[in-house]
Amino acid sequence: MIRLNRETLRDKIYACWIGKNIGGTMGTPYEGRRELMDIEGFATPAGVVLPNDDLDLQLAWLLAMEEHGPWQLDARILGEYWVTYIVPHWNEYGIGKGNLKAGLLPPLAGEYQNNWKHSNGAWIRSEIWACLAPGCPDAAIRYALEDASVDHGMGEGTYAEFFTAAVESAAFVEKDFRRLVEIGLSKIPADCRVARSVRIAVNAYDSGIGWREARQKLVEDSADLGWFQAPANLGFVILGMLYGEGDFKKSMLCAINCGDDTDCTGATLGSLFGILHGTAGIPADWREHIGDEIVTISLNNADRNFVKTCTELTDHVCALIPAVLRANRAPVELTDGPDGWEEADLAFFTDPAAARKLYSRPGYSYTIPFVHCDARVEFDGEPVLAEGGSLPVRIRFFNQVHEVKHLHLTFYLPEGLKLTGARRDLYLPHQEGREAVWEAVVTAEGPVGSVNRILVEAAADGHPVAGYIPITIIG
Fold it and tell me: Which of these, 460, 339, 345, 348, lies nearest to 397 by C-alpha position?
């Protein structure tokens, strides 16, 4: 069992948000600059906090967690909060939002026609999950997946949020940055581009080359992806931590001077420093320069009152932590005594099993839970159907209780669509994988609407709750 002192934990969480504001405010004036820079500090006067979507979106996720709780919070709920409370239509934000409004659920909403799914919009908002699940990386990445998949599908942007959520959660316990990198890498595919960029940064530092040359290696390796992409920018954060050698200011300036998505790299690095070292690790002059205020740019503040200060945000997060830890059966307890754990208590930090199960989810899919079963709709590619065409579809049913089930399926189709090969009864085992697969082909016998929903009703003998599963197809 990992024991975390409440006051120490609160100080680190508060420092996380202060660090986020420092890095975001310092980096924002240079966002999008692709050349190597040489800034030395704030471009803004004292007391001015610049708005930053990196923090904004986490306020919406906090509200979703407060209103729906850690047991049921998922990508469907976050998607609804996205279209209701998140205003911008920038890049992947706009593509994900457009797909959500067309009826596509995550991760399909973040996968379909999304040439920005490898970008930065997800890993920059991972601190909320780390702070809600301190010392429990697998719980943090569980929520990170639900978050990132809304507008990044199963792309590199989602892998990047796995990495940052795991590192930040573990940083409440683990102080060695090289060990934290190892933890983050254990939670993402070894052959993904994010992992490659992280290794480039680490290897450059170990080889003794300067940070500017290391930065150039990252830029060249990600040239095929273009700018504002997760692999290189997360690599800049790693460079800042390594070449800054434990100094907050040196690390921050190194990361931001790499250019590109400078508000994101600075804000994430500031957050991680805050978690690692608490308020004592943040330079007093920079902390005084930025103050406590949160200024938003991305939220629909007309409908809801979001938190306005880092202090208020910290209070809300701390109030939720016990419920989040219970919901995830986390081996972490809060105490008024000292922090404490044995090295063996941290062995699961680098266990890849839970992460592999999460990131193996198909991008062209979405899941509908209904208490005793989960149903995952899967397509082999884009869910698009033209007149006279056909489209294969699967529903993978997962048994959530330890008993055999007999599922009875009923289909409701829009006019002009036909299902062939669709079984109406399905046997669902309670062991040996506890899943069963239903397959069919959708055929368009006439004109196809812009958005089409086939509804599958799944009823199980002996259970009062039926599942209603939409198969959403774009015309």
Answer: 460
Residue 64: phi and psi, rounded to 5, are -60, -40
Q: How many other C-beta atoms can be found within 10 angstroms of the C-beta atom of residue 304?
A: 13
Q: How far apart are CA 168 and CA 143, in angstroms?
A: 13
Is the pLDDT at 126 greater than 90? The verdict is yes
- Distance of CA 121 to CAs 4, 275, 338, Å? 30, 21, 36
Q: Strand 390-399 and strand 435-444: pairing? A: antiparallel
Nearest to 237 by CA among 308, 163, 173: 163
Distances in whole angstroms, Cα of residue 156 to Cα of each of 75, 78, 216, 257, 263: 17, 20, 20, 23, 19
List, in sequence order, every residue forming a beta bridge with 412; answer none if it has no partner: 455
CA distances from 27 to 42, 116, 356, 403, 422 (A): 8, 21, 33, 54, 54
Task: Tell me the pTM.
Answer: 0.97
Helix (H, G, I), strand (E, B) or coil at 229: strand
| Mean pLDDT confidence for 314-334 | 98
Task: Find residue 440's DSSP bridge partners.
Answer: 393
What burial class does residue 391 get, using C-beta atoms within 10 Å of its C-beta: 0-12 exposed, 13-18 middle, 19+ buried?
Answer: buried
**Can you tell me the distance from the alpha carbon of 285 to that of 283, in angstroms, rounded to the nearest whole number?**
6
Reading the block at residue 283, the tokens are: 């330079």
What digits encode the pLDDT tens for the residues 214-249?
Answer: 999 999 999 999 999 999 999 999 999 999 999 999
